């Protein structure tokens, strides 16, 4: 909770006038307990997880001719019922997560040391933190993912996620509970090591969720693919091959960037969208 009784008092403490964003943040959070701001993370992720996969799902059902040319595995159609099953099973976790966040907030506050008040972080600070979080999360996730592809890890845990050899957006969170727990560690590692403002934390988890849904979408749109702009970005085609290979896969473990796969020689580069479709067909 912001420890100022008025906007004038907040500006006096800052030694300057608040920006429009800081004024809006002050109005929104001044009377809100920090624990509730902390729980916003789960609410935001629930909304994103619910909405982001819907456009492709709707187009698949009502305008397949528009979207199927960009499908990475055109020979495999995921039934609508299976996509909805993924969503329902994952959505049930969100209310539990909110309750857990409320109960664990005192401990989480000590570990994360998240800032809730003013000033808001600058764009430069936010970008720098997001870059650090992305690189750290990618490295840790890579090794956890490789461990999950050992015989024991795959048979006991990871095979649940690989039920979908042709993934769909909602399948991003369709995993064994132990896998979800393990892969939350890399996502939290950055904010723990480099503490940030709660708004940066919301942005970080939102970006990762959207990116995770994207690489599990089953589609590659070359005209909007970030892989042309971001060095070592894998994208949907890169990860889709990992699902295509399934339990046999010993490549393309990286969730976001491909530098770990490149360094440790577990990358299987795919030449183009057209080549991917031929390979997967």
From TrEMBL:
GO terms for molecular function: aldehyde oxygenase (deformylating) activity. The chain crosses the membrane at residues 35-59. It is a multi-pass membrane protein. It is found in: Endoplasmic reticulum membrane. Keywords: Endoplasmic reticulum, Lyase, Membrane, NADP, Transmembrane, Transmembrane helix. Residues 131-266 form the Fatty acid hydroxylase domain. Its EC number is 4.1.99.5. It comes from the Eukaryota. One of its GO terms (cellular component) is endoplasmic reticulum membrane. Coiled coil: none annotated. Belongs to the sterol desaturase family. This is aldehyde oxygenase (deformylating). It comes from Urochloa decumbens.
